[in-house]
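pls ignore typos typing on phone
hypoxanthine + seq
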Amino acid sequence: MMGPTAELHVHIEGTLEPDLLVRLARRNGIDLPTYDVDELRATYAFTRLQDFLDVYEANTAVLRTDEDFAELGEMYFRRAAAAGVVRAEVFFDPQAHVRRGVPIEAVVEGLGAAVDAARSRGMSADLILCFLRDLGPEAAMEVFEAALPLRDRFIGVGLDSTEVGYPPSLFRDVYARAAAEGLHRVAHAGEEGGPDYVWEALDVLGVERIDHGNRALEDPALVARLRDEGVALTVCPLSNLALRTAPPELSAHPLPVMLEEGLLVSIHSDDPAYFGGYVDDNLQQVRDALQLDDETMRRLAENSFVSSFAPRAQVDGWI
Ligand code: HPA
Ligand code: ZN
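k done
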């Protein structure tokens, strides 16, 4: 087992394992293409972000009640604890549910109950509300306002889904509102989109962390900026393999370059039910493929804590 770590890049909808998918589909009377867990898993074969997002979105249809969300969260937090996660900052996509007629309260209160349960077992855990960038800035503002009465249930906002064609600058206003509310700000950038998306996330949205950020390496001035300002990159190796946002061999993953460049990188799982592993699997596989020594593994874990939004005193206790 891996040592303690912080999971800072995981989408709760991406933790929907086939067995829970089938159970919830039956419970809620939702049609699935197949109810065979192995056949379902076989549909989890992607070569790019959009192919994955289509399956991910279709499967969210089984999530309907606060109980469903609580169960999804509960399964994730238990698996995460077994992976050595002592701090979890978990993304959720309210628009994926609200647009199907699910009340936002069911989403947030259901996940919130799972967060409370995880905390009662000793984990440090919080939620981050993500905007689906392909639905545009007005829809983002609308869901943000709908979520404001539940403000004490999440600590920040993020930006995910289809990247290319939906640059961060579109979301200037809603990120300004989030900042005014004292919320943390992160954004997916430089996953499929170029370095210009990472610049915009920093300059226009004022994000504190970049999710993925792999393509920042194409721009030396950007690499210098990320290093000098200590901006965290949450890197997801098995996701990069599955979505072809890194070379097809883990042994050619850019993680060592990121570390050599002095970037504040840490390892995360993104959508573990779809990409073949939780954070412990990601850590083990990069360690083996890239032959990382104990000192580097310790640094990756320390980076995850330093990059987290946990209270300073908690972070000091972990590093
Ligand atoms: N990228 C963009 N959107 C997402 C992802 C991702 O890796 N996972 C879930 N939504
Ligand atoms: Zn992601």
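The longest strand covers residues 124-132. The chain has one domain: 5-309. more later
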